Amino acid sequence: MENLFNPNDLISQVEAAEIRGVTRASINELVKRGRLQSIAVGGKVLLYRIEVENFEPDKGGRPAKAKPEASPATATNGTRKGATTKTTAKKGNRK
Questions:
Q1: Whole-model pTM above 0.85?
Q2: Over 54-87, what HEC string results?
């Protein structure tokens, strides 16, 4: 029977953090969220090297809002049809 397990395929969270250029806490958070698979061996959490190297982070942040379509009530300059703009007098001209 062929041995399919290679111990060199597993790395510690510290090694994973060094490979990715992040903190160990960041790697631990990815494990907790299920973004990286891990196994516990002898009380230590180990990760698959290939998975860490090939990991693609999410874009992150809030999704962009969909731009609303222009309604017929909106003119090309962004004001409503028939709407007037308010003009104000300069402060120096008041009596």
A1: no
A2: CCCCCCCCCCCCCCCCCCCCECCCCCECCCCCCC
